[in-house]
Structures are given as C-alpha cells and as structure tokens.
Amino acid sequence: xxxxxxxxxxxxxxxxxxxLASYPPSSLLLEGGTIEERRNLSLFWAARLHCQQxxxxxxxCRLCVQIIEDTYRDLIFLDGALGTIxxxxxxxxxxxxxDPPVGHGYxxxxxxxxxxxxxxxxxxxxxxxxxxxxxxxxxxxxxxxEILLPTLVSRSFVLTLSWPRIEESDPQLQDWxxxxxxxxxxxxxxxxxxxxKKGAVDTDLAGRILREVQRSLVQAGYGVxxxxxxQILSRRLDVVSMRQTCVIIENALESLRLGAQPAVTLEWVAxxxxxxxxx
Length: 279
Ligand SMILES: [Zn+2]
Hints:
The protein is an alpha/beta fold. The protein folds into 2 domains: 4-161, P-loop containing nucleotide triphosphate hydrolases (Rossmann fold, 3-Layer(aba) Sandwich), CATH 3.40.50; 171-277, Zinc Finger, Delta Prime, domain 3 (Up-down Bundle), CATH 1.20.272. Helix content is 54%, strand content 10%. It has 13 helices and 5 strands. The protein has helices at 4-9, 11-20, 35-50, 62-68, 87-97, 119-130, 150-154, 171-186, 191-196, 203-221, 228-236, 239-257, 262-277; strands at 27-32, 75-79, 107-112, 136-142, 157-161. The chain has a 5-stranded parallel sheet, covered by helices on one side. Helix 6 (119-130) links the parallel strand 3 (107-112) and strand 4. Helix 10 (203-221) runs antiparallel to helix 12 and helix 12 (239-257) runs antiparallel to helix 13. It is globular, with a radius of gyration of 20 Å. It binds zinc ion.
C-alpha cells in the first residue's frame, strides 16, 4: 500500500487523522516529515474520508486506487514541487470549488508544497478557506508552517509529522555540515575542494545533508536553533530569506530525485544560500 510505510513511521499522526475523520476540519495543514510522507499522508487522509471498507482506508478498493492514482473525481492535487502555483490556477480551481462535489462525499483539495503558492495565489486560496463551501476539504502540505502565509496557517488545523531521525552520530555527515556552514558564512573553506573530488558525495549522502539543512531551517524558523547550522541560519537570515532557502532545499531534493549530480546540487545549494546571506 502506498502509505503503509509512512503510516508505520507516523503512527501518532495517523491516530489524530482517525480521530478527525468523523468531523474533518475544513483545512488541515501537514508540516514536518519528508516530502513523500506529507504526500502519502494527504492521500491517506483523502482515502480515509472516502473509503467505505471496514478498516478505512483499505488501499485496495476502487476509490482508494483512484485516489492513489490521482484519478478520483473529487480529488484535486496541486503539486507545488513542480513549480510556482499561480493565481490563475487557484482562480480556475475556485470555480470548481463553488460547485458541490461530484460524488456523495467530500471534495478534497491538496496543495502539496504550499510554499510554492505566489502571494496572490495564497490570498485567493485564503478566500476559499474563509468562505468554505459545504463538501470542500483542504489539505496544505509544507516543510514548516513558518514559510506559509500566516492567515492560511491560522485557518488550518495543524498536524506536525515527526522529523526524520537526527543523525548526530554520523561523523561523515557532521563533517559535511561543518563544511557547508563554513562556506555559507564565509564563501570559503574546503567545501568545494571536497565536492570536486570524484565520488566524494553520492545521492544518498547529498540527500541526508539536505535534510539536515531542512531540519536546521525548521529549528531556526521556530526560534530554537539547536544545530550549529541552525544557529548560523537564525543569525543571518530574515524570514523571507529563510523561506527562500526552504524552497532552494526542496528544489535541490527534487533535482536529486530526478538524477541530478549530487556534488553539483550541493554546490548550487551552498552558493544560493551564501548569496541569500550576503545580499
Ligand atoms: Zn478503500
């Protein structure tokens, strides 16, 4: 089943969703976790609201399969990971939202990586949240609520997924985090010497480094900078730059998934972040 592993790792959130299902909030915000976990949980939630089987969602009935395959008529899945979400897109969807759902249940609109909404699009979406039509349920996904329009957050029921395990015990990762921290502060250090060594960083390691940066951004965003990098970020980045860095990291992770060179991806992140710190 698409979401089984996510559900196993995020059992606390699953319990909440089960409780919410009998009276679902009109807008749910899922933050934290990984991009895949947020997606899987949003589909789990949509299926939880539609599946008629005894242990819903079963993941196998016609409705569940259609939801997983994104072919279900009352599911709108907007994917911010694919690029900016414009006001035109939201306006078109608002026309659909003004009609009742096609089926008997809810219409679920998922905005994945909602930080990709332009400010105008976010405000247009806010209107839908403020004047909910019966039958429409919204799900916003984001790495952290800090990078969303605050009014969108305040209109939503927020569930925080647990973060991937902190890998403090991994000396190789810590070494890379140190080099990255040094580079984004000074533009120097031996980060680029290391990334230019053939085979020094593979996709898996690059992904772990980027997720560590993500975790540090969240710590910085919440005002509890624990890691060394989080302390650097919270000292040097304002809210807007922090949001831009989140988008940079999400884009980098997506590039890695699509097969981009890990060393080049890390260099790109380091330089863009350095640029934001020294603009
Ligand atoms: Zn089902």
